[in-house]
Design brief:
Structural class of chain B: alpha/beta
CATH topology of chain A: Ubiquitin-like (UB roll)
CATH topology of the largest domain in chain B: FAD/NAD(P)-binding domain
Radius of gyration of chain A: 13 Å
CATH superfamily of chain A: 2Fe-2S iron-sulphur cluster binding domain, sarcosine oxidase, alpha subunit, N-terminal domain
Largest sheet of chain A: 5 strands, mixed
CATH class of the largest domain in chain B: Alpha Beta
Shape of chain B: globular
Oligomer: heterodimer
Strand order of the largest sheet of chain A: 2-1-7-5-6
CATH architecture of chain A: Roll
Strand content of chain A: 25-35%
Order of helices and strands of chain B: EHEEHEHEHEEHEEEEHEEHEEHEEEHH
Shape of chain A: globular
CATH architecture of the largest domain in chain B: 3-Layer(bba) Sandwich
Order of helices and strands of chain A: EEHEEEEEE
Radius of gyration of chain B: 21 Å
CATH superfamily of the largest domain in chain B: FAD/NAD(P)-binding domain
Helix content of chain B: 25-40%
Chain lengths: 100, 405
């Protein structure tokens, strides 16, 4: 567990018990909880950067977190340019980091 | 000492006029009620086109302006130095494609007329077209390739023209709205009144795009410019996939139509940032700026018909703006027929970015007696041309109007 993830007991929303899921990020398993977005799963696993820009190879991750900035793009199950902050994670999702 | 020339509007056309006038030695003040390049100029695609124009005065102006953009882009880069962003002048060429035999025959006939008027227009087969654009739909039967078509980044281009104008002594004042005319004791126009005081000038050039009609009214003049709304879709970056400005053969008909109803046609081009700009739509709904999802959907469907891979490319955002539409499809460039000292440079509809350099040169040459660009006859753009005289007669209140029924 990393500092980026709130322990369920401390969550004031008092969610039900976690249902764990696994997504595959560049071939590595990353575990999260059903209901999280892909950005939530990635942040929860300690990832802050999962894209690099095409021009300057600058790091990018979540910026706005609400689907506006298009900074957190990932390839999901073969489809490019998916906003990780909006996409609900599904068990077995295949996530590939994008350049650009 | 008053300003020699007041330019109303800091969009691409006002900026081009200001620059041409300032380079020619005039003392220029540019006024804009908002920010520079914040309205129509910031809501298009930066088109510099000959392909969408049939033979006639607008095409003649476009042919001069397309050549002028190439030299102007280099002049601006030299003048402003490497720290100023590039205007992104891309002479990428246009490709018009169609999927039906009848449409292809029509397009080829249209291109033959353009060729006679001096346009490079190369007939291409479907396979030729797919060699130019490998991702084109298999249904594309053929089309016409227009190597002269180009593109600029319109906001940078406007700012570059304004920066150059400032370098030649012009003053650009934003957040200053024209409220009326400043007149001498003889009633002659001597400048404008604004929300920030009077701005005197020997000449006033109205270059306020679709708002030119309202500015003209405040100055006691008349020009029948109306807003024609257009929407643009922006995709996530897909570098290298679309190389030309690609559009379907319905685009010309849409530009030339007069109908107020919604019209869409597919216009697809890439930007140096890798995003695609997808147009185009035409609606006459005044200055209503509420977006319509059905317009976006219709445009997206048309674009997918041209480039099937777009079905899997997300639209990142959309924006809409207002073109300065003229009922006779020609811009107004020249002196007002009734008020000495009042000038117009407006009504370019969707071609303002492309036509701006030639428009600025034309205004400067007529207003200051500077050398005129060859190949352009300003009479077709006059404020008192026959089509506008007829409209003016209709627009004047009839004696019976307002009388009790």
């Amino acid at each position: 567990m990393t500092s980026l993830r709130m322990p369920p007991g401390a969550d004031p929303a008092r969610p039900g018990p976690d249902r764990p899921l696994t997504v595959w990020v560049d071939g590595e398993p990353v575990t999260g909880t059903a209901g999280q977005t892909l950005a939530g799963v990635l942040l929860g696993a300690g990832h802050r950067v999962w894209r690099t820009t095409r021009g300057d190879a600058a790091p990018r991750g979540v910026f706005c977190g609400i689907g506006v900035c298009f900074d957190c793009l990932v390839e999901v199950n073969g489809l490019r340019d998916v906003r990780a902050c909006l996409r609900r994670a599904q068990d077995g999702d295949v996530v590939v980091r994008q350049v650009s | 000492m008053g300003t020699d020339v007041v330019v109303v509007g800091a969009g691409i056309v006002g900026a081009a006029c200001a620059r041409a006038l300032a380079v020619a030695g005039a003392s220029v003040t540019v006024l804009d009620r908002g920010a520079a390049a914040s309205a129509t100029s910031a809501h298009g695609e930066g088109n510099v086109l000959v392909s969408d124009k049939g033979p006639g005065p607008e095409l003649d102006l476009a042919l001069v302006s397309v050549r002028r953009w190439a030299t102007l882009a280099a002049e601006l880069a030299d003048e402003l130095g490497p720290r100023f962003p590039s205007v992104e002048h891309e002479p990428k060429g246009g490709l018009v494609v169609v999927a039906g035999h009848q449409a292809l025959a029509g397009l080829r006939a249209f291109a033959a007329g353009q060729r006679a008027a001096g346009v490079e227009a190369l007939a291409v087969t479907g396979d030729d077209a797919r060699a130019l654009e490998p991702d084109l739909a298999p249904a594309v039967l053929g089309g016409v390739h227009y190597p002269q078509d180009a593109q600029v980044q319109p906001v940078v281009a406007t700012e570059a023209l304004l920066a150059s104008a400032r370098g030649h002594g012009a003053v650009v004042r934003t957040g200053v709205e024209v409220t009326g005319a400043l007149r001498g004791t003889d009633g002659r126009l001597t400048g404008v009144t604004t929300t920030s005081g009077a701005v005197p000038g020997g000449a006033v050039v109205v270059a306020a795009g679709p708002w030119s009609g309202e500015v003209a009214r405040r100055l006691g003049a008349w020009v029948p410019v109306r807003p024609r709304r257009g929407t643009v879709l922006v995709t996530t970056p897909v570098p290298g996939r679309v190389r030309h400005k690609v559009y379907d053969g319905d685009y010309f008909a849409a530009t030339q139509s007069a109908g107020a109803e919604l019209q869409t046609s597919a216009v697809i081009e890439s930007t140096p940032a890798g995003t695609l700009l997808v147009g185009s739509s035409r609606e006459q709904v005044g200055f209503d700026d509420r977006p319509r999802a059905d317009v976006v959907a219709q445009m997206a469907r048309r674009a997918v018909a041209v480039f099937p891979f777009l079905a899997q490319v997300p639209v990142m955002r959309t924006y809409l703006g207002f073109r300065p539409y003229m009922p006779d499809h020609l811009p107004v460039i020249g002196p007002d027929a009734e008020q000495p000292g009042l000038w117009f440079a407006t009504g370019h509809e969707g071609a303002g970015v492309g036509l701006a350099p030639a428009t600025g040169d034309l205004v400067a040459s007529m207003l200051l007696g500077a050398a005129a660009a060859p190949g352009v006859d300003p009479r077709a753009f006059a404020t008192d041309r026959p089509t506008l005289r007829a409209l003016r007669a209709d627009a004047r209140p009839h004696p019976t109007e307002g009388a009790p029924a």
